[in-house]
Amino acid sequence: MATPNKTQPAAANTAKTAPAPEKTAPTAAEVAATEQATAVKKAEKAAKFKLIAARRAVVILKTLGFLENCANKGSYEYTPEQVATIFNSIEAKVKDVKAAFSRTGAAKDKIEIIL
User: Fold this and answer.
1) Over the Cα atoms of the chain, what is R_g?
2) Alpha carbons 8 and 6: distance in angstroms, whole number
3) Is the predicted pLDDT of residue 78 greater than 60, yes or no?
4) 93 versus 13: which is more confidently predicted?
C-alpha cells in the first residue's frame, strides 16, 4: 500500500460535498402556518401570564392582610417609625416591580383578582 506523499492528497480529503440547496421563498401556506403558530404561542404566553401573575398577586394580597393583623394595638405595640419603615420598604419594592413591567413592555391587560 502506497502512502500518500506531500504532493498527493489523501483519498478522504478528495471527496467533494454536494452544493447547498438554493433557498426558495416560503409558500403562502407556509407563511400562514408560521403566523398561526406564532399567534398560538403568543396566546399561550398571555394565558400563562394571567394564571401565574394572578396567583402571585393573590398571595401578596393575602400576605398584606396578615400584616394588617399586626395593626391590632391590643395584641401588638409599635411606633410610627416602625410602621413607616415597613411601608417605605413595601412601597419601594412596588415601585421597582412597576418599573420592571414598564421596561419590558409587560402585560397591559387589567387582571381581575377574586379572593
Assistant:
1) 31
2) 6
3) yes
4) 93
6, amino acid identity: K
Which residue would you say has higher pLDDT here, 26 or 43? 43
Cα 95–chain centre separation: 19
Report helix, strand or coil for 22.
coil
pLDDT at 28: 82
Q: Distances from the Cα of 82 to the Cαs of 14, 58, 65, 78, 85, in angstroms?
A: 81, 25, 18, 6, 5
Q: What's the grid cell of residue 3? A: 502512502
Pinpoint the alpha helices (H) of 1-115. 28-69, 80-104
Q: What is the mean pLDDT of residues 70-93?
A: 94
Contacts of the segment 86-94: beta carbons below 8 A, 24+ positions apart: none
Q: Are 107 and 46 in contact (CB under 8 A)?
A: yes
Q: What pTM, to 2 d.p., does this model score?
A: 0.57
Largest CA distance in the chain: 101
CA distance 115 to 102: 26
Per-residue DSSP letter, 20: P
